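Quick review question:
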């Protein structure tokens, strides 16, 4: 008795086991973008056992839909990349009257110092 051989598929002169079709670059790219891929690595530069520099590299390659599914959406909130993103709001009052009220004492104090310096120069 002989063991049964798996069927083979012939494609452009190559003989491959059935179920293993050759993948072109488009198929590979589609698979990577659909599932996503993470590449991580650390680079350390040391001199005489003294660590001078450490770079931590993390690269995620995925489609926009896949990235959203895993919770990555930073491009939607970056004002440089999205017209819908808003710049971060600075803390503090936004009412112009409140801003003037907070600035007025500093400006008056600065004006008094300037007047005093001018009087010293004249006197």
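Suggested answer, residue by residue:
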């Amino acid at each position: 008795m002989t063991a049964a051989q798996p069927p083979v598929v012939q494609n452009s002169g190559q003989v491959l086991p059935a179920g293993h079709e050759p993948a072109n670059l488009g198929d590979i790219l589609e698979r990577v973008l659909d599932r996503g891929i993470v590449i991580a690595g650390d680079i350390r530069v040391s001199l005489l056992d003294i660590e001078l520099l450490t770079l931590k590299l993390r690269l995620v390659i995925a489609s926009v839909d896949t990235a959203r599914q895993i919770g990555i959406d930073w491009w939607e909130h970056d004002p440089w990349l999205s017209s819908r993103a808003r710049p971060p709001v600075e803390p503090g009052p936004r009412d112009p009257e409140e801003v003037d009220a907070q600035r007025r004492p500093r400006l008056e104090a600065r004006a008094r110092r300037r007047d005093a310096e001018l009087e010293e120069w004249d006197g």
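Why it works: The first strand starts at residue 8 and ends at 11. Residues 8-12 have pLDDT under 50 and may be disordered.
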